[in-house]
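Module 6 notes. Inverse folding takes a fixed backbone as the condition and produces residue identities as the prediction. Think of it as a translation problem where the source language is geometry and the target language is the twenty amino acids. Below is one complete input and output pair. Work through it position by position during the lab.
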């Protein structure tokens, strides 16, 4: 092997990091209406008044977090100019599924590391006491940003306690407001009425971007990210069109543009072309598919494995009953108690919803009746690669033995015949 070394390469990129989701541009494009509503909801802060509680909702990648970062950055700058005492505390609630965990993390966000409290062992009322004391010590106006707030789930008492802390006498010196950000469009409606009236004092919906808005977002970022002339004709437009198809997700459109740039750079190409975009899309879809399959529960994966073995035998589209019979064989080998035929049909419906499987309704009239048929939407090798952990536990079905051997992705241990 020839000697390998690394040298800087800026032939295409000027600032690749500007295509990342944590980058905040100097201005926000495509969200004028939402920014206007958000600005009005934050206005009491600069007036020294009690802050509104604000709830933002919309699908992933529609600008909620980016607009929040942009506006709060501007608000903090202006608060210094007008001598307003403002503190912003931001917490991502991913992995925090209770009010207790959120309260502990907020306390530790405010305290210095040597004074952090343990994540367990304190009664909830005591953790709240710690939080009220820390907020009062901060004083002034405190905005608490809870991103992915829907992770808190049914234990949502903190979403009621914080907005009511001052009126309940728990806080005297600080004026506290919550900004809740959710990707779950139904989360707001699932809150208890008392929480909804407090948290959703000002609600702002972020709709998906359309292709024109995504073009504006991509052009703004591309101007910072790439050297002049680095992008070929149609690249921005194609990324925007794909992003619009993916539920108007700007994050995916930016990932796609960065992926295309990375492929072009790896090829030592002078420009990024639409071919690079198409190749990047194929790679991103493959990664999303593999992540989606890897996240499935064991029995869902086992149903998918059953269908995959039938696909490898050219026995698809396969009827639900045929898939169920193969699934039972695999469950027996895996020493798992098989689920009912009805539950397996539910799993197949879930796989279809996730665009992993294609299902269709058939009607053969009086002679055959109605039934559903299923086949893979993706190639066998990719699906098998995503289920490597399950296959190593269950063993390799004879029908896919050669496919796995060729891919060299799963160690061949147990092999069994149908």
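Target side of the pair, the amino acids:
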């Amino acid at each position: 092997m020839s000697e390998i070394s690394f040298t800087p390469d800026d032939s295409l990129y000027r600032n690749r990091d500007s295509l990342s989701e944590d980058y905040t541009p100097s201005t926000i494009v495509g969200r004028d209406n939402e920014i206007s509503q958000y600005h009005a909801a934050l206005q009491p802060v600069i007036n020294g008044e009690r802050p509104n509680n604000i709830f933002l909702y919309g699908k992933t990648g529609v600008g909620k977090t980016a607009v929040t970062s942009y506006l709060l950055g501007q608000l903090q700058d202006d608060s210094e100019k007008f001598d307003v005492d403002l503190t912003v505390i931001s917490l991502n609630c991913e992995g925090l599924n209770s009010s207790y965990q959120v309260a502990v993390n907020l306390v530790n966000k405010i305290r210095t590391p040597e004074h952090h409290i343990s994540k367990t062992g304190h009664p909830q009322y005591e953790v709240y006491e710690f939080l009220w004391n820390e907020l009062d010590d901060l004083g002034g106006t405190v905005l608490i940003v809870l991103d992915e707030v829907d992770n808190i789930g049914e234990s949502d008492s903190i979403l009621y306690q914080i907005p009511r802390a001052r009126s309940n006498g728990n806080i005297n010196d600080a004026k506290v407001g919550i900004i809740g950000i959710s990707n779950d469009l139904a989360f707001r409606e699932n809150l208890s009425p008392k929480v909804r009236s407090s948290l959703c004092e000002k609600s702002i919906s972020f709709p998906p971007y359309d292709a024109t808005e995504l073009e504006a977002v991509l052009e703004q970022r591309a101007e910072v990210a790439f050297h002049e002339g680095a992008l070929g004709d149609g690249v921005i437009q194609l990324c925007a069109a794909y992003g619009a198809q993916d539920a108007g997700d700007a994050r995916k459109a930016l990932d796609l543009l960065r992926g295309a740039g990375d492929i072009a750079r790896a090829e030592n190409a002078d420009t990024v072309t639409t071919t690079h975009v198409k190749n990047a899309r194929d790679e991103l879809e493959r990664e999303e598919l593999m992540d989606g399959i890897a996240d499935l529960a064991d029995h869902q994966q086992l149903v998918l494995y059953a269908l995959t073995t039938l696909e490898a035998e050219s026995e698809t589209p396969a009827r639900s009953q045929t898939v169920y019979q193969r699934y039972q064989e695999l469950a027996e080998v895996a020493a798992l108690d098989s689920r009912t035929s009805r539950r397996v049909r539910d799993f197949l419906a879930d796989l279809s919803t996730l665009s992993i499987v294609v299902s269709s309704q058939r009607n053969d009239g009086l002679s055959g009746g109605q039934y559903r048929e299923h086949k893979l939407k993706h190639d066998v090798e990719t699906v098998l690669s995503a289920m490597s952990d399950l296959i190593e536990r269950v063993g390799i079905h004879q029908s896919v033995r050669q496919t796995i051997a060729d891919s060299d992705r799963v160690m061949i241990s147990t092999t069994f015949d149908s």
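Reference fact for the lab report: The longest helix spans residues 274-294.
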